[in-house]
């Protein structure tokens, strides 16, 4: 019988939420260190991994954020923002919750379009960043690449 290899990721010096997000995306097949770092770096730029954050910094429940973006990736357009609420209702969870937002994020067409790039090993950070732009449509680049490179240094893929 052939032994199956198991891999996991370790984000050295990361918060529990950063590690949880790294595990979530790794388990979905984003297993290139730079691809995973790009996803994490973009989430950090958007929300600092705070799921109940309204654009501008207020920590409030989903239903109290009435302008700008909300949550892990700062859902801003009405279809994406309300889609989060509809998803949460459908699964019986809180739209402000970290796990709910991770679950919703991967159902969106924007993520599904970018995901094959993130699942392709060996691309440049620039190529992964282009996919992240398509996924998030950011207005400012900010520290995205800086955060990405920090995560690239922190991420360790462990083959067991």
Could you provide a short overview of the structure?
The chain has 160 residues and is mostly helical. Helix content is 51%, strand content 6%. The chain has a single domain (7-159), classed as Orthogonal Bundle (Lysozyme), CATH 1.10.530.
Description:
The protein has 160 residues and is mostly helical. The chain has a single domain, classed as Lysozyme (Orthogonal Bundle), CATH 1.10.530. Helices cover 51% and strands 6% of the residues. It has helices spanning 16-27, 33-47, 78-91, 98-105, 109-118, 125-136, 144-154, and strands at residues 7-11, 155-159. It has a two-stranded antiparallel ribbon with strand order 1-2. The longest helix has 15 residues, at 33-47. The chain is globular and about 40 Å long.
> Which spans of ≥5 residues are poorly predicted at pLDDT below 50?
none
CATH architecture heading: Orthogonal Bundle
- So what's the overall shape? globular
User: Could you tell me how far the N terminus lies from the C terminus, measured between alpha carbons in angstroms?
Assistant: 17 Å
Order of strands in the sheet with most strands: 1-2
Helix fraction?
Answer: 40-55%
Rounded average pLDDT: 94
Secondary-structure element sequence?
EHHHHHHHE
Helices and strands: which structural class? mainly alpha
- Quaternary structure classification: single chain
> How many distinct helices?
7
CATH class type = Mainly Alpha
Main sheet summary = 2 strands, antiparallel
Task: Tally the beta strands.
Answer: 2
Tally of separate domains: 1
Strand content: 5-15%
* Cα gyration radius (Å): 16 Å
Per the CATH scheme, the topology name is Lysozyme
